[in-house]
Design brief:
Number of helices: 14
Strand order of the largest sheet: 2-9-8-7-6-3-4-5
Strand content: 5-15%
CATH superfamily of the largest domain: Type I PLP-dependent aspartate aminotransferase-like (Major domain)
Number of domains: 2
CATH topology of the largest domain: Aspartate Aminotransferase, domain 2
Radius of gyration: 21 Å
Number of strands: 14
Helix content: 40-55%
Structural class: alpha/beta
Shape: globular
Length: 393
């Protein structure tokens, strides 16, 4: 049919992660590709109890249309969780969204006009690139070192280009596992404040620290200039699609209006269930259980990489989150090498997908939360063999 689609529809491309995950459906594949939580950790019994309570005691509300902003009791519970992290937020500052991905989309809707500038790290989260690409921005990126996005030259870039916002995943970043130290957070805030540029702080991972502590959230340092995105996807279960956006008043009102046009409101029943789960006091212990398992898997992956990868390969050494980052020699193209890895029953995500302006052909994102300990050792050994073979050419 000769249908005329919008320019936005033409710009949107399928996620390389989703396409790679299709490959992993092949029997016998060990996948380091997705950012999937370990499904054996889902708190099924507690969620059954919460669901039953909601249906027995409050089904008339939980199964009904609701306000766009979200269930008030859940917003209050999230405000209490944030307070423990040094973030002062009223329930009226919190918008419940359908996963953080919707929060990213809403941010793009209220800030980005075609051709306007967005500043971010290189690499950065692919889901954010996808969400923002719908509005056709111009990306200015700063390279990353062991401490995340570098800040040298940031002020000059901001002064010259006046970006709509600075987007960061400052703690255990997806895709590379790096964390911005407090000194860089303060420097970024100083520049953002000077030029009145909002900071978008995407924070799915800060609760998942396995060694030491994490720096304070940027939102706690610069509350009036930061929009914070948080989620229960990595803490409880991604299928619930319950997340939140915390924004100053003027931006909050615009986010709410955009969400009204997108979906009216987030799943009411799921909101009620998550609230009951939190009210029962399960979250803190559950997070400790999650951290215990992921910490062990991360250490095993790092040990196996040290043992099996060729010496020409380097990698990050995170202390939390779900990912680490592998850098191959320049002559190796990770995308072209992926079919060979799949032939050997192991899969990964090529890092080039995380570069909004192109690049990173020799990089790889590795996930350690989903595969079992035995799968990690077998898979890393297989990948090491694939890399060694590629380096011979």
């Amino acid at each position: 049919m000769d249908w005329r689609f919008s320019r936005m529809a033409g710009r949107m491309k399928s996620s390389v992660i989703r396409e790679t995950l299709k490959i992993t459906k092949k029997p016998g594949i060990i996948s380091f590709g997705g950012g999937l939580p370990a499904s054996e950790l889902f708190p099924s019994e507690e969620l059954i109890e919460a669901s039953t309570k909601v249906l027995k005691e409050n089904s008339s509300n939980a199964l009904q249309y609701a306000t766009t902003e979200g269930y008030p009791k859940l917003r209050k519970a999230i405000a209490d969780v944030l307070a423990d992290e040094g973030i002062s937020a009223s329930p009226d500052d919190i918008l419940i969204t359908g996963g953080s991905q919707q929060g990213l989309d809403l941010v793009g809707r209220i800030f980005i006009d075609e051709g306007e500038t967005v500043v971010t790290a290189e690499p950065t989260y692919l889901g954010a690139i996808q969400a923002f690409n719908a509005f056709n921005p111009r990306y200015i990126t700063l390279p990353s070192d062991d401490d995340g996005m570098t800040v040298d030259g940031l002020e000059e870039l901001v002064e010259k280009n006046r970006p709509r916002f600075i987007y960061l995943v400052p703690t255990f970043q997806n895709p590379d596992g790096r964390t911005l130290p407090l000194s860089r957070r303060k420097k970024i805030v100083e520049i953002a404040k000077k030029y009145s540029v909002p900071i978008i702080e995407d924070d799915p991972y800060s609760y998942l620290f396995y060694e030491g502590t994490v720096p304070p959230p940027i939102k706690s340092i610069y509350p009036d200039g930061t929009i914070l995105l948080g989620t229960f996807s990595k803490l409880l279960a991604p299928g619930l699609r319950i997340a939140w956006t915390v924004a100053p008043c003027e931006a909050y009102e615009k986010l709410v209006k955009q969400k009204q046009g997108a979906d009216l409101h987030t799943n009411t029943f799921a909101q009620y269930v998550v609230y009951e789960y939190l009210a029962a006091g399960h979250l803190k212990q559950h997070i400790e259980d999650v951290k215990k398992l992921y910490s062990r898997r991360m250490k095993i992956m790092l040990e196996c990489i040290e043992r099996y990868f060729p010496e020409e390969v380097s990698w990050t050494k995170p202390t939390g989150g779900l990912f680490l980052w592998v850098v191959l020699p320049e002559k190796v193209n990770a995308t072209e090498l992926l079919p060979k890895a799949v032939e050997n029953n192991v899969a990964y995500i090529p890092g080039s997908a995380f570069y909004p302006n192109g690049g990173g052909h020799n990089t790889i994102r590795m996930n350690f939360s989903k595969p079992t300990e035995s799968e990690i050792e077998i898979g890393i050994k297989k990948l090491g063999e694939v890399f060694k073979e590629a380096l011979k050419k």
